[in-house]
Amino acid sequence: MTAPRSTATFDPGTVTVTREGAIATVALDRPDKLNALTRSMWRELGAAVDALGAAADLRCIVVRGAGERAFSPGNDIGEFERERSNSGQAREYGAVMHAALRSLDACPLPIVAEIHGICVGGGLEIAALCDLRICGEGSRFGAPIRNLGLVMAHAEMAPLLRLAGYAATLEILLEGRIFDAAEALRKGLVTRVVADADVAAEALATAQRIAGGAPWVARWHKKFARRLRDATPLTDDEIDEAFDCFDTADFREGCAAFLARRVPRFDGR
Amino acid sequence: MTAPRSTATFDPGTVTVTREGAIATVALDRPDKLNALTRSMWRELGAAVDALGAAADLRCIVVRGAGERAFSPGNDIGEFERERSNSGQAREYGAVMHAALRSLDACPLPIVAEIHGICVGGGLEIAALCDLRICGEGSRFGAPIRNLGLVMAHAEMAPLLRLAGYAATLEILLEGRIFDAAEALRKGLVTRVVADADVAAEALATAQRIAGGAPWVARWHKKFARRLRDATPLTDDEIDEAFDCFDTADFREGCAAFLARRVPRFDGR
Amino acid sequence: MTAPRSTATFDPGTVTVTREGAIATVALDRPDKLNALTRSMWRELGAAVDALGAAADLRCIVVRGAGERAFSPGNDIGEFERERSNSGQAREYGAVMHAALRSLDACPLPIVAEIHGICVGGGLEIAALCDLRICGEGSRFGAPIRNLGLVMAHAEMAPLLRLAGYAATLEILLEGRIFDAAEALRKGLVTRVVADADVAAEALATAQRIAGGAPWVARWHKKFARRLRDATPLTDDEIDEAFDCFDTADFREGCAAFLARRVPRFDGR
Q: Does domain B7-211 have CATH number 3.90.226.10?
């Protein structure tokens, strides 16, 4: 949450996508506002993730903020007077924001959050929907929306509950504290904490490790873990899908590489 | 669990309520027995929490034991021969105890447990149903009811499962160990551990932080987090409730305070 | 996962059961292969656990690998060409493996995993279905099956999700790293870490602590905790079962021992 320097020069910001090999990077790209999120950025984020999730040749997505000062401080409050000033507007804004959260959640590809600096509010919600979260020792976390008189909707709270559990999520929301990376790690909000200077390298190494595994296996693992969030019984077809991997070329390559004590090369077939 | 000094002078104990501003304190008040719980104290606890939860001008409840030696060591075993000596009596005792646990669980206000010293058995169950738990370095925890040949009922176990998870809850019950505050923190049973001399101050500071936020937001956050414990799909009305805050005076105050870089003053409107 | 030294001398391995008083020990017994698991060992493991779970005079089971180099590195890949080379064979192999996992999960007795050294893949899945996990500082953990092009089935993933949660389980599967005991403890995969030389003594002490409690209470606690994994409402009969303990001789012994300040002696009656 950042106060606008000038509403007259309001810049809705953008989301930038780059690709290198099997890894795509999505940047929340509004560095002069610490990547504070606007309604249009939520829409772009959702569209970018939807498009990348449909790319058969990708193996991992990295989500980050532009620059190294912030992942994102959350929604830009400077936009609220025009876009989110009452419940009617808030429903429209919420529809866009929640659609982006659903796109992140539904993405079949593994997603790594590369967290430099501030990761608060809507920024934390985006990070929570990534699969792994790498941050720096100087990163800061929180969701102090009670200071705005605002509520975190169910769809925004559920990913935090999944990571941090009931008690820590309520603690974060009721106290509204901003806390450091060590506390975020203890609360389960981040996967690992590295020196601030090493965040980009560790996020890349993580994405490369993920991309080095059999790509369908990564998608299956994410699909199965998500399915098990739902308590309804598995169908026979769902249970049976766990055996499909045994008919893949990647399985034959994996076993051959293991027995020959070499690194496997997976093609996603 | 404490042995009575004399059953002839059995004192059923009491529960004391005090208020200061928007914060109420509920004390398990039987310090000569370390606040060991009797059936009548469970009934008083439930009634006190029900009454406070209905008070529109309250913003936070603190639950503690009288004195600084114990939160509570659990149910007073000296009372068992008269009140809980077979399954029939135990059902009646359980009805009172479980009603109090339900009152804690259903309370719409945030509850802070201020834990001095021993927090065991029924004491731990009360603490587990508070929203934040502040304890001292010298606090001790556990649920060694297997040593009595007694079982923790489902309704008592569920809050521990929510905090500590399946494995740690079973570990606590199967081994019956008493453990220290550091282990309680690692197991997720407490929110934070401070020096013993600082427990009251930190509990008060936590309650004041909570009371400083928009009060309806706190209630909504607790309501939403509780709702998400239930896997049934949200109704449209439930989802829509997250937008009600945008029509409150507290939201307008929160945004105005943020943009003016001042501390907001929330009225709960 | 270990490469066979020679498929010509393939040894299907065995599972060994020993008893001492109320504690039984089940050993994955193939030390020359670090206790790599074969289809026949999965079948023997399931049968052993089923038989021990039906023994009324037992109070605790310890599961370990033979020797002190490994709990188990997982399924023996040397067997895959003959037993698990396509989806049809994998279904048959999976039926045996998953039946053993169900036997572990359904066992009414508390189970302690005594983990020396390597605990990976299928070994980790077995350990995850034990109730407490004691390991040494030098133990190593992971599930790098993505390197084989293989998927962890839902039934195998669910116990890891219960211990480590959604994020850590996906991290383990997507990155495929082997990690140390300290990280396993942080992830919730083990109950406690001791010096490597102390693993057997601590596992035995844990089993003895468990065996020292009222035996029906241990079974009830495990039954109730498992039941609460299921979100369906409890029936009245299920709720009422928590009061049966008040009619046992062990309850009377427990109260008498507490009031006399002596150690109780439980008979399971």
A: yes
Q: Does A180 touch chain B (CB under 8 A)?
A: no
Q: Which of the listed CATH numbers 1.10.12.10, 3.40.50.2300, 3.90.380.10, 1.25.40.10 matches domain C214-259?
A: 1.10.12.10
Contact between B217 and A150 using a beta-carbon 8 Å cutoff: yes
* Contact (Cβ atoms closer than 8 angstroms) between residue C113 and residue C137: no
CB contact under 8 A, B87 and C244: yes
> Which tokens sit at A105?
């959640």
Return the structure tokens found at B212. 């400083």
Please give the ipTM for the structure prediction.
Answer: 0.95
Eight-state DSSP code of residue B235: P
Burial of C51 (0-12, 13-18, 19+ CB in 10 A): middle
Quick one: closest CA in A to C1, which residue?
A258
B229 touches chain A (CB under 8 A): yes
DSSP reduced 3-state for C7: coil
CATH number of A14-211: 3.90.226.10
Sequence-separated contacts (24+) of C252-260 with Cβ below 8 Å: C252/B149, C253/B149, C254/B147, C254/B148, C254/B149, C254/B150, C254/C214, C255/B77, C255/B80, C255/B81, C255/B148, C255/B149, C257/B147, C258/B1, C258/B3, C258/B77, C258/B147, C258/B148, C259/B3, C259/B77, C259/B78
Q: Which tokens hold the place of B89?
A: 């009596």
Whether residue C43 is predicted with pLDDT greater than 60 in this model: the reply is: yes
Judged by a CB distance cut-off of 8 A, whether residue B214 touches chain A is yes
Give the pLDDT of residue C269. 87
Q: Is the pLDDT of residue C31 over 60?
A: yes
List the single residue in C with minimal CA-CA distance to A185.
Answer: C186
Strands (E), chain C: 14-20, 23-29, 60-65, 70-72, 111-115, 118-120, 132-136, 140-142, 179-180, 192-194
Q: Residue A141 in 3-state DSSP?
A: strand
Q: Most B CBs within 10 Å: which of A146, A170, A229, as the mutation test of the B interface?
A: A146
Per-residue pLDDT averaged across A219-237, rounded? 96
Mutate to test the interface with B, among C23, C163, C228 (most CBs of B within 10 A): C228
Contact across the interface for C163 and B158, Cβ inside 8 Å: no
Residue A10 has pLDDT above 90, yes or no: no
User: Is pLDDT above 80 for B5?
Assistant: no
Residue-wise pLDDT for B27-74, tens only, equals: 999 999 999 999 999 999 999 999 999 999 999 999 999 999 999 999
User: With an 8 Å Cβ cutoff, is A91 touching chain B?
Assistant: yes
Q: Is A170 on the interface with B (CB under 8 A)?
A: yes
Half-sphere exposure for C4 (CA within 13 Å, toward CB): 20
Mean pLDDT of chain B: 95
Angle between helices C249-259 and C215-227 (to 10 degrees): 110
Percent of chain C with pLDDT strictly greater than 90:
92
Model confidence pLDDT, tens digit, residues C122-171 = 999 999 999 999 999 999 999 999 999 999 999 999 999 999 999 999 99
Which token pair is B52? 């406070």
Domain boundaries, chain B: 7-211, 214-259
**Domains B7-211 and B214-259 agree in fold:** no
Residue whose pair of structure tokens reads 């606090």 in the numeric block? B139
